[in-house]
Amino acid sequence: MIRLISRERPGWRDRAREFGFHFHTMHGEPYWDESAYYQFTLKQVEDDLEAPTAELHQMCLAVVERAVRDEELMRRFRIPRDHWDLVADSWQAGERSLYSRLDLAYSGQGPAKLYENNADTPTSLYETGFWQWLWLEDKVNSGDIPRSADQFTSVQEKLVNRFAELKQHHPGETLHLACCKDTEEDRGTVQYLEDCANEAGITTRFVYIEDIGHGEGDLFTDLDDQVIRWIFKLYPWEFMLRESYSALLERSGTRWLEPPWKALLSNKALLPMLWKMFPDHPNLLPSYFEEELASSALTCFVKKPIFAREGANVSIHIDGEEVLASEGPYGDEGFIYQAYCPLPKFAGNHTLIGSWLIDDQPAGISLREDRSVITQDLSRYLPHIILGY
Amino acid sequence: MKRTASINLARMRKAPVEPCRLALVAAIAVAVSGCSDSREATAYSDLEDCIEDNPELAQQCRTAYESALAEAATSGPRYDSELACESDFGDDSCQVYQPQNASGSWFVPAMAGFLFARALDGNRYQSSALYTSSYYRSPIYGKWSTADGRVFGNGRQGRVTVDNDAFKPKPAATRTMSRGGFGSVVAAKSNFGGSSRSSSGSRSWGG
């Protein structure tokens, strides 16, 4: 795993416009950054990232399997009491999932370590599945990168195949897709999923989360009063379960992507549970609940809110002293504690690897660089290639 | 190979956001789909006409008529007021509809006919509920319309050419009593000013 300086494709911004990639620059800062790329060997990708991703995912599912049968755990995962059945039933019924992203710390050597599981509303999907794929096509065609180069990016192919599978279970049904208003990045991600669903032959309609209605007969509706029977939402379950329409969730019969059981998988309480069930696993960092911290012997740790997004409200503690903290509106539901394992540095940047799954199949990686140890929403996205074995 | 073998770039390409060009693109799309994915069907005003026309297909006519009625019940247009309904479908064309398990009632247009066509696989017949309007200012005056608003033909019984999609299952419609029950947490968290981003308004709620 090395970082290589690279020539930007001339006119790549026009290409971005051509393909509707509008959020490559956000708040005046570059988000997509092709002034460099990462190069992996095939062995690094397959042995150190792909295989552990498949295994970690199964371990996470084992935690869900246990949590849905244990009221004490449902409480620890901060699932509101009224929705325990919704979450547990969706798991027992085997409701199908679409995708997740595991965040990993990996330097090219040694085992990758799991930071967290973004299993409910992961973003940077378009960049991973399509845009970095197109970057490699262009770079190979211009002769900048040898034709023998590959990339770990089967996200798009697997997404289309997954949608085709899901279609079998929803014959003739329209899939609604939803995200919040006023976020170009989320809208772009949902548009990408809509393109993939259409490619699989699914009829789709878009609705903003805020515009979803309560229709007569305890149904969810879109702005044209059409009933929402099956919907992808880029909006976290932990929010939905605490909002006024949550009482309708059980009665409406609507099928959700991701399903309600993802509220357990995308939850930071997953991390101490993984450590309990799979102690000393090479891809896990020691993690504890609040009340276990004192007896844990952890002296250098990261304190993370049970619910938080984009690295908000995270603090790093070394020998009893808080050395770095990010701000944010989260933390009301409590915290978990994870052994401090700083991200590797490449050319002064802290690099985080996102490892994607479509359902339970590893499907590609994404790389984010940040000037800070805590990766936040301003971190840049860099492409990668695989060269050599 | 660890990457997607090939991608349909045409689907990934997005038209530039210019209203005049978008309209043109849409017009071309309709024209193209009109000649490639359409087929012949018959619009019948009632069941008897279908049977009279196709005595050997009486059972198929009956099934088609019943499934069109069922489609009209679940997916047909619904209105809060009789006036709103009649301004789309004409005087005396609307009736009160009281759904099961619902408190209120609606005004719905009466089904004016149904489409009848042999399925693409040739072994079955398909149908779709049809509406028309006797009000001259209605957009479907002198035309047929499906439950999901596809407009074609002249509103009279006979052969028509329709898009294959006219036979697809229609999404069910209902009356919406309230909106905005999701999204309140985001609204509250958006007020938080300490984000690393300079201004609120474009933060991702994914992660």
UniProtKB/TrEMBL annotation, chain A:
InterPro entries tied to this protein: GSPS_pre-ATP-grasp-like_dom (IPR005494), PreATP-grasp_dom_sf (IPR016185)
Keyword Magnesium: yes
The organism's place on the tree of life at top rank: Bacteria
Pfam families named among the record's database cross-references: GSP_synth (PF03738)
Organism, scientific name: Halomonas cupida
Domain (Glutathionylspermidine synthase pre-ATP-grasp-like) ranges: 12-386
Keywords assigned: ATP-binding, Ligase, Magnesium, Metal-binding, Nucleotide-binding
GO molecular function: ATP binding; ligase activity; metal ion binding
Listed name of the protein: Glutathionylspermidine synthase
TrEMBL record, chain B:
Protein name: Uncharacterized conserved protein YgiB, involved in bioifilm formation, UPF0441/DUF1190 family
Species of the source: Halomonas cupida
Phylogenetic lineage: Bacteria, Pseudomonadati, Pseudomonadota, Gammaproteobacteria, Oceanospirillales
